[in-house]
Write a structure and sequence with these properties.
It is built from six helices and two strands. It has 221 residues and is mostly helical. The longest helix is centred in the last third of the chain and has 38 residues.
Length: 221
């Protein structure tokens, strides 16, 4: 009775999981997965932008009056904070690619701190909105002639900025986690994971770049 020898499976490189053939295939799959996730998120925000455009086209005067009640100073400051965080994240990705773990960890930490600063400014702005009676349901008061359109504006304002803040909070957690991993040099393919984290962070920044003019700059001149 003959037996057929079974060749042993080839050893996998460190950090390569089933069912991937090698590290390159695993990295491509992870990157594709993130792009697909971001595409679905963009579609979600796209629906909100479409609703905004439709409502603004029907109630332009009310939207302009409501937008003038937002704090352009705080909105512009937060825009500058996020643009700076995009730079630090891009630099962190480059440092991770060059295996400069200490620099990558520091830059990721700075990115997270900038994200926390953004959240703090935004929550401060929410407090001002409440004091000025601009929060739907809780405390809303506006010129009766424009109240209907202003209410629609502020529903969209709090929905879009609130969802953005949730995404930013997730991004801060990711940045802190990878800062720790870079500092401890945990992960065989860590630079690829940091690149994917960078994609998510830049998506969050991109959404704000569209929100800023829609919410803060409507007929400001």
């Amino acid at each position: 009775m003959s037996t057929t020898a079974v060749a042993p499976a080839p050893a996998r490189a460190p950090g390569v999981a089933e069912p991937f053939r090698d590290a390159a295939q695993q990295a491509d799959a992870a990157t594709l997965g993130m792009w697909l996730f971001l595409a679905t998120e963009m579609l979600f925000f796209g629906v909100l932008f479409f609703v905004y455009a439709l409502a603004r086209s029907r109630l332009p005067e009310a939207f302009a009056a409501a937008s003038r009640q937002t704090s352009v100073l705080l909105g512009t400051t937060n825009t500058a904070v996020l643009l700076t965080s995009s730079f630090t994240m891009a630099t962190a990705v480059r440092a991770a690619q060059l295996r400069r773990h200490g620099a990558a960890a520091l830059l990721l930490l700075v990115t997270a701190v900038l994200g926390i600063a953004f959240a703090g400014i935004k929550l401060t702005e929410y407090g001002l909105d409440y004091r000025h009676h601009l929060v739907p349901v809780l405390d809303f008061a506006f010129d009766p002639r424009l109240a209907r359109g202003a209410l629609a504006f502020f529903w969209l304002y709090f929905t879009t900025t609130g969802l953005h803040l949730v995404h930013l909070t997730v991004g801060v957690g990711i940045a802190l986690a990878f800062a720790w991993r870079e500092w401890r040099r945990r992960g065989a393919r860590l630079h690829e994971q940091v690149e994917i984290a960078g994609l998510y962070w830049h998506f969050v920044d991109l959404v704000w770049i569209f929100l800023y003019p829609c919410l803060y700059l409507v007929q400001r001149a």
